[in-house]
Design brief:
Elements (H helix, E strand, L loop, with lengths): L3 E4 L9 H15 L8 H7 L5 H12 L1 H4 L4 H21 L9 H10 L3 E6 L3 H11 L10 E4 L11 H10 L6 E5 L2 H9 L3 E5 L14 E3 L9 E5 L5 E2 L3 H13 L2
Parallel strand pairs: 1-2, 1-4, 2-3, 4-5, 5-6
Antiparallel strand pairs: 6-7, 7-8
Helix pairs in contact: 1-5, 3-5, 5-7
Bound molecules: xylulose-1,5-bisphosphate and magnesium ion.
Xylulose-1,5-bisphosphate binds next to helix 1.
Length: 256
């Protein structure tokens, strides 16, 4: 029986990358006096590397190899990431990163129907707390039984580690849950943990390989603007509500 919904954060709960994380990275680079600037296009390419620290290291090795090779570079990256996270949290608290369509209503309805909620994300815990408080509700962190974020696991997405970490702490088998993702890396991670997954793609992930997803939608949909079904057993447009998720889950399990 469906017992829990597990949500990715960046790109799934909210469109946080282009106008959130990317802006925060550039502000940190500026403060550090680094001549680095990640424009919208370059950032879309760098998103192939999950984890902000890992993304900066990847960029430095490619564009500033002499700096990356210097002693103390790792310490510089960690300090830079702390600064970036401060800027990102400020952006979130300023209300610049609203939830995607249908996310708030689905979370509230799921909670009211007794479904458990969890988060499995590559982003840093501070970012999750800030987004839930600013964009969902001041007490929203307590809505989630488990929040798995950032460095709590050695391997980030597309490795399944964060989803396995969350399932273990939920005390549930993957078959009793559904995952929600926005990217190819995230889908791989969820599938790797045995989770049936609903994808809502975005500007940076449209066109990713979503093989294995139960459904691929433009977003979760709202009555005044139902979501576009890009792939799945529905045609046209839909709004993802608890009843539909239970129907999908029953279909998935019956095919096992
Ligand atoms: C997206 C990520 C994160 C963010 C930046 O995470 O890969 O690294 O881009 O956040 P998800 P940090 O889609 O799994 O939510 O700088 O805190 O890593
Ligand atoms: Mg994501």
């Amino acid at each position: 029986m469906l017992q829990a919904l597990i949500f990715d954060v960046d790109g799934t709960l909210a469109d946080t990358e282009r106008d959130g994380h990317r802006v925060a990275f550039n502000a940190a680079f500026r403060d550090a006096g680094l001549p680095w600037h990640w424009d919208v296009t370059l950032y879309g390419e760098l998103l192939a590397v999950t984890g902000g620290k890992e993304r900066m290291l990847h960029y430095a090795r490619q564009y500033a190899p002499e700096l990356a090779a210097k002693a103390g570079f790792d310490t510089l990256m960690r300090k830079l990431h702390v600064l970036k996270t401060e800027y990102y949290v400020q952006l979130v608290h300023a209300g610049h990163l609203p939830l995607r369509p249908g996310v708030g209503s689905l979370l509230r309805a799921a909670r009211a129907s007794g479904l458990r909620l969890a988060i499995a994300t590559t982003t840093s815990p501070e970012n999750v707390s800030a987004l839930l408080r600013a964009s969902l509700a001041p007490d929203a962190e307590s809505w989630f039984d488990v929040i798995g974020a950032g460095d709590v696991v050695p391997e980030k997405k597309p490795a399944p580690d964060i989803y396995l970490w969350v399932l273990e702490r939920l005390g549930l088998p993957a078959d009793d849950c559904l995952a929600f993702e926005d990217s190819g890396n995230g889908l791989k991670a969820a599938l790797g943990a045995g989770l049936a997954t609903v994808v809502t793609d975005g500007e940076y992930t449209h066109g990713h390989d979503f093989s294995g997803a139960h459904a691929v939608l433009s977003d979760l949909g709202v009555p005044e603007r139902p979501a576009e079904v890009r792939r799945g057993d529905m045609h046209g447009r839909c709004c993802v509500d608890v009843d539909l998720l239970r129907l999908w889950h029953d279909k998935i399990i019956s095919k096992k």
